[in-house]
Structure formats: C-alpha cells, structure tokens
Write a structure and sequence with these properties.
- This protein has 288 residues and is α/β, with parallel strands linked by helices.
- 37% of the residues lie in helices and 15% in strands.
- The chain has 11 helices and 8 strands.
- The strands form 2 sheets. The chain has a 6-stranded mixed β-sheet.
- Strand 3 and strand 4 form a beta hairpin.
- Helix 1 runs parallel beside helix 2.
Length: 288
C-alpha cells in the first residue's frame, strides 16, 4: 500500500529518519513498505535493516523527479533491479541529463532504447499522467509499468475506461511526514530549498497535506469498490524483494583478491592502502 515513502534523505523535502519511518509504519499497521527518496537511494540499507527487525517487508526504490515534476517511481523486484536503478540514477545525475518520460531497463542497462525490458524494475507513473495522455500512453503500458492511484484520485476513475485499465492500476499512498507539525517543517524545508518565503510557495513546490500514514483498514475501505487495484498492489508487493547479509564482512570480498582474503592479510593497514591506491589508479587513471 505504501509504495512511495520518503525520509530526510529526500533533501529539503522529507522529515522522517529511516527508523522513525519504520516505527510509524508499524503504528499504522503496515506490513510492507517501499522507501522511495527523491533521486536518492542513500539510506536504503538502514531502512531494510530496521524494517526486517520490525517484521515489515521492505521494498527498495526511488522517486524520480525533474525539478518539482514527479516523473515516476521505480521499485526493485530484486537486488539486480536495485543495481539497475542505481546505474540509471547515477548516469543521469552525473551527466546532468533530465530523466526520460519513460525509462527502459534492458539487461540491467538504461542507456539504449531497444530490446526487451528486463522486468527487474517496476515503474509506477503518477495518475495525472493518465489524465493528460489518455491515448497511446494508457494502451502501451508494459507488464512492469503501472499507474499509481491515490485515495484522492478515486473519484476521477469514473471518467476513464476502468475495465480496460484495471490491471495496470495500483494503490499509491505517499508518505512524507507524520502529522501537522512535520508538515509545517516540510513547508519550511521547501521554502529554504527554493529560497522563497512561505507566502510565495505554490502547490507544486510542496507535498500535499494528505501524504502521511493512514490506518490500513481505512485505506483498504476507500478502495473497496475497486478490488482489482488492491489485488494488483498486493501482487506487486509480493514480487519485490531486497536482500542483504548485514552480518558478513564485505570489505574482504570486494576490496581484495579472493586469494588474499584470509589469514593475517587484513591485519595490515598498509596492504589495504596499497590495494585502494591500485584500485583508484585503475578506475580513474588520469586522477591517480
């Protein structure tokens, strides 16, 4: 249900820490949660650890924006999908490129436009996209592409061909803050980000006041007339998994050759410095 949650790693936007977000989810009765910070995946592993400890099914993702425009939400079906999301994000941010209208993830790559999509990444478009482009967009959605419907969008479904679209719709309840006090903090953060006073703030500059946890039974009740949307949402949640062994020392595996990852080799910091310098020279030869 909560496929679009943010922490304060959505810089000058979110108000939760990862731990606070998970605690609020538990209080709301949530059993699954997707962390989708704006153009950022920095605290995913903290979130995953806290969620597992709280008995919540974690989903890794990101919210893609061009400035204030919400483009789509990306969710990883697995670790391979999460790696593809990070490559996609890094490529566009490092190149200073605007994010495309519709991303393509082919064999873990997003640079080409051809080929069959890998299916490791789920794309959820905002409902407004459907309202502004009812033609080719709605009929060309791939199996990994969905439209997110918020509770405030329910009344708009009557204007659409729901029967034709019902299998591509999922419930999207954004979560950005816990209540009125945090909402006011969010507004201040957005004003700071744009260097404006609050009276100059527009609706597009900030999140809606409804972007908080709702009791799960209340959320389900609102969509009781559209059971297919709930079914799609549960199936999507069940298809997404992210794994990490938090008790394994990964430094040994990734920084040094396999033949030298045992014994007293790691007890010597000079060796670590040597291999780090070699790796730096290999990756960035002009700067080493």
């Amino acid at each position: 249900m909560y496929l679009n949650c943010k922490t304060y790693f959505s810089y000058r936007y979110g108000t939760f820490s990862a731990k606070q977000l998970v605690a609020a989810a538990v209080e709301a009765g949530a059993t699954s949660l997707a962390l989708t910070n704006i153009n950022n995946t920095s605290d995913i592993w903290d979130f995953v650890r806290y969620a597992i400890q709280a008995g919540i099914h974690p989903i890794a993702g990101v919210e893609i924006r061009n400035e204030d425009e919400l483009c789509y939400i990306l969710l990883a079906r697995n670790n391979k999908g999460f790696a593809a999301i990070n490559r996609f994000l890094s490529w566009h941010l490092m190149q200073g490129l605007a994010f495309p209208d519709r991303p393509v993830f082919t064999d873990g790559s997003t640079q080409g436009s051809g080929g069959k999509d890998s299916g490791d990444v789920v794309v959820i478009y905002p409902f407004m996209r459907l309202m502004t482009d009812r033609g080719n967009f709605a009929t060309s959605l791939s199996p990994h592409e969905y439209i997110g419907v918020q509770p405030s969008d329910i009344n708009k479904l009557i204007r659409l061909d729901y029967k034709a679209l019902q299998h591509r719709l999922v419930l999207r309840q954004p979560v950005t803050f816990a209540g009125k006090q945090q909402y006011n903090l969010h507004r201040l953060l957005r004003a700071i980000d744009r260097n404006i006073i609050l009276s100059k703030q527009q609706d597009t500059h900030r999140a809606g006041p409804h972007e908080c946890f709702m009791p799960l039974d209340s959320l389900l009740h609102r969509f009781s007339a559209y059971p297919q949307i709930l079914t799609n949402t549960f199936q999507l949640i069940d298809s997404c998994h992210i794994e990490m062994d938090f008790h394994q020392d990964k430094t040994n595996v990734f920084l040094l050759p396999a033949s030298k990852t045992t014994g007293s080799y790691f007890a010597s910091w000079p060796w670590m410095a040597l291999w780090s310098a070699m790796a730096l020279k290999t990756k960035w030869p002009a700067r080493a």
